[in-house]
Each structure stands twice: as C-alpha cells, then as structure tokens.
Amino acid sequence: MNSSATARNHPTFAQVTLLLVACVLLPAGVLGLFYLVDKEVNPNREYLLTDFEYLASHVDRPPKTQGEWRRFDREVEIPDEPYASLWVRTDVTKRLDIAQANALYIPKAFANVQVWLRGELQYTAAPIEEPLAFFRTPLLIPLGELDTTADTSWLHIRLTAARGFLSPAHVYLAPYSELTSAYRHNYWVAQVLPKLFISVALTMIALVGGLFIMRPQDTAYGWYALYMLLWTAHTIHALIDHIPISHELWFALTYVCLIWVACEVVFINRYFDLRMRRVEKLIAVVTGCLAMLLLLPAILDSQHIAFITTHYLWMPWIMLLSLFVFVQCFMAVRKSWSIDSVGLLLISSLFVTIGFRDHLFDFYYFVPGTTYYLQFIVVIPLLFFGFLLLRRHVRALKISEELNAELEERAALKAEQLEDTYRKLNEEEKRREIAEERARLMRDMHDGLGGHLVHALSLTEKGEDRRDLKEALRYALSDLRLIVDSLAPSDDGFDSLLANFRHRISKSVARAGIDMNWSLSGAEHAELRTDQSLALLRIFQEATTNAVRHSECKTIAISVSGDADTLIAEVRDDGKGFTDRGHGRGLDNMQIRADSISATLTVHSDASGTSVRCVVPFTAS
Length: 621
Fold this sequence. Notes:
Shape: rod-shaped
Radius of gyration: 54 Å
Strand order of the largest sheet: 3-2-5-10-7-8
Structural class: alpha+beta
Distance between the termini: 58 Å
Number of domains: 4
Helix content: 55-70%
C-alpha cells in the first residue's frame, strides 16, 4: 500500500526545522498537561496510617510473636520462597480521633491483601494460592467497628506476592464515606478509562483488520491491526489483578507484547513504501531472539536473569525501535511533505517521549504521576489513522466517480463508433450481397440462358430444322423463367418456386406424350436459399429434359421429401436407361450444380429406367 501522498513534494529547510521543534514542544506540552491532570485524589492526610511494624512470616494468622516485629520505614525485601509473605500491624487505638472509622483504603498494594482486626479476618482480596493475585488497582475494604475501650486493638495486614519487595505504603483508615470519592476517582483512572481506550482500539482493529482481509495486498493494514492488537494485549496485562499463570511468565509476556513497536516499524515502512525489507528481516530476527531470551528465565524461574534480560537487553531494544520509528517518519517527511508523514512524525515523537517516561515510571520512584500515560495517548494515532482511512476512502470514492464518469463518456463514444461501424458493415454487407447476387445472376445467365441462346444461334447458322431451333429457344425461355422466379420476392419459399416450375414443365412433358407423377410432401417446409432453389430446379429441368429426349419413357415421377436437416429430391423415369455416360454434358451439368450448393447427387440407370437423386442440406453454404 503506497502512501496517499505520493507526489514528490519535498519540504523546505524552514519547514523541517519548525517540524522538529514541534516534535519537541508537542510531547513536552502533552506530558505537562498529563501531570497537571494526573492528580491522585487522596483522602485527608489525617486518615493516613504511618505507625507500622512488620514481620516476614508465612503463618496463616497474625503472628503472636512480640519481640521480632520491626519498625517499618521503607519498602523491604522479603524472602520469596515459595513466595514473599509480609505481615504488618498498627495499633488503631491510637486513632481514637477517628473512632467512627469503618473502612480501609489502599491505593496500590502491588500484592495480594488480607486484613485482620482484633485477630478476626475482615477481608481477603484473593485466596492466597499460586499464582498469587497482584493488585495494582485501589482497594476499599470495609471493617467492623473499632473497639475504643481496649488498651490495644491491632490491625494486621498480610501482603503476599511473587516478588520479594513489599510495602504497606499509603494505607488510610477512615469512615467509609470519607474514602469513596478517592476510591472511585482512582479506580476510574486505573481501570475504567483504560478499558474505554481498549474498546476504541478493538473497534479500530476490527475495522482495519477487515480492510486487510478484503485487500490482503495492502499489507500495511495488516501490520497496523497486528501492532494495535499487541498494544491492546500489553495494556490489558496491566489491568488484570488475578494472574492466571506464574508471576514471572505473566510479566515476561507483558514485556513481550511490546513487540508492537517492531510491528509499528514494519507498518510505517509499508505505509510510506520506504523499501527497507532487509531492515525488517534484521528487526524480526533480533526481536525474536530477545523475546526468547526474555521468556526463557521466566520459564526457568530465574528472577535475576529475567531482570538483566528485561532492563539491559529488551527495554533498550524497544526504545531503539521507537527511535527508529521516529527516523522512519522523518525520512517519509523528507521524501514527501504530506498530512500523512507530518502527522505520523508528530505522533511518533509523542510515543517515544511518553514511552520513555512510562519505562522510568515502571522502575523508578522519582518519576511523578499515578499511572502509565501511553495507554491514554494511543487514542491519538487511532483517531489520526481513522482520519487517514476516511480521507483515503473519500478520495477513492471521488476518483471512482471521476473514472465512472470518464468510463461512461468513453462508453458512449465507443457506442457511437460501434453504431457507425455497424452501419458501415451493414451497408458493406448489403453491397457484398448485391454483388454476389449480381455475380450469381450473371453466372446463371451465362451458364444456362447463354448456353441455350448460343445453341439456338448455332442451329440457325447451320440451317437446321426449325423444330430443333424452336426447342432450343423454348429451353432458353424456360431457364429465363427459372431465373426470374428465383429473383421474385415471395414469402412462400421453395414450394412456390416448385409450383411455377411444375406448371411450365408439365406442358412440355405433356406435348411429348409422357405422363408426370408428383409427390411434394417435403417441399412445403423446405428452407432453401435462392441459389439452392435455383440449382435444384435446374437439376429437375435437366433430368426431365434428358428423360424426354433420350429415355423413351412413358412416365416421369418427381418427388420431394426430407427431415429437419436435409431435403431429398428425386426424378425417376421408366425408360430404357443408359450405360454410357460419355454422351452429352447433361449429367456433368447436374453434378456441377449439385456441388455448387454442397448437395449430394446420385444417378442410377438400368433397363427399368433412370433415377436422379439429390440430397440438399439446409445449412450448407
């Protein structure tokens, strides 16, 4: 898929400079805005519990030991065999100023939590069994009433986690109504708001993934859907408290989902057609190897190796890929100044800055804020890419409409040209048919009428008997009538021409004292062309003339029959027949006429008479 801005619109030096300044100011402004808005809502500090003691122990109830409790002043490292278990306690009788307190609020425990009051279990966030739950969301825990008359009323909190570093920091004890406002706000920021963004991301994934399924040749759509899917999986990991697998493998998979940055590299490459396939392969190999190195310590349950792999190999590589995305977008801007390239460059600068801040926030306490910010700015590329898709769709529709209009115009022009060509071809066909008909008529007159007239002229010059001359002229006249009949327009077809021929030939045969029998059952529906009809009638005429002149017959029978494909015509006499075909050209003439219409001519003669049979195909050319 090529970028929608394919025109070579190179930016000026001033444009590039201003854009780079914007790439610095925009992330700084967004980060500052987040810090202004991201104010953790906490209850009144008078409700904060600070006087804690701690004891590392795996016992299921508050320890009775008195001398081993230590003063708590910072996060402590607890042995994690088989898991880290820390008991903390405070004497709530020292808080008689809040005697109405009936709830405990823990903004972030980063562990599983149990709460005991006066030796009685009050609350369990999740069962203490592996894989241990890991609560990063606020907990609002209802308690029983405080005993204001006792000398000591211990509140015990048990923290259990796969990690060895635990802390009960920021625990508030207050009336329930004083804690709900802070709890609802912080829960909305930590859980509800990210889920809203995830819903938007899933919608975009479905849209872009559907486009890729329909147009798999546009690989940029597929890579965008994949990188958004992996980003969604990475974000969801941070929202799940009840971890379904081991803690080490769960967090390793959380970091593995950062592969979405590598997918983003491929997406930018394909979207702007930067032709970096070798770079893509190198990134794929390195990312795959580091991902396996990241998962291996988690599978082998080695926290130390996992820490080194994550912090010194994987995260630097991910940050390097983020910088490379910025470089790709900058190259796209230098290649072509467009909304696509400028917008994605600004967005990539946001991703690099906010991603680096989130990485520091994950491991260092000096970074301000209450949560990760990358999950919130992802809506910006979502909306921007949605705008690009909509813009491309509208542009495609516009181009499609223009092409359709041009196609309709060309189709109309081609239709006119085809109509003109058809008219010319039709006129040419008519001229060709007329020429062929004229040629056929001239040929028929030359071969038939011309031959008879030449014969009559020869008889005149020789001074032959007038009866022979009269007979020759009569045959010439008969042939002329055949030609005229074949040219006359008639809707009756071959049977009409045969009726005229029968009327004329019957008189001639009757003068010779010969009877004629007719059987014309197949003539009525015979669909013959003009040349076929004329050739067949001439064969009839030639066969009848030969019978009258030479056979000494008493009867001549003419029959016409046929089926859907052929017409069978036969002339039979009861004369003396013949054995020598070398006398005269009558049989040769009939054969020539039969060949001219692709008919089959069969002549049979013996002492009982002569039969001339012609089979004419209706479809013959």
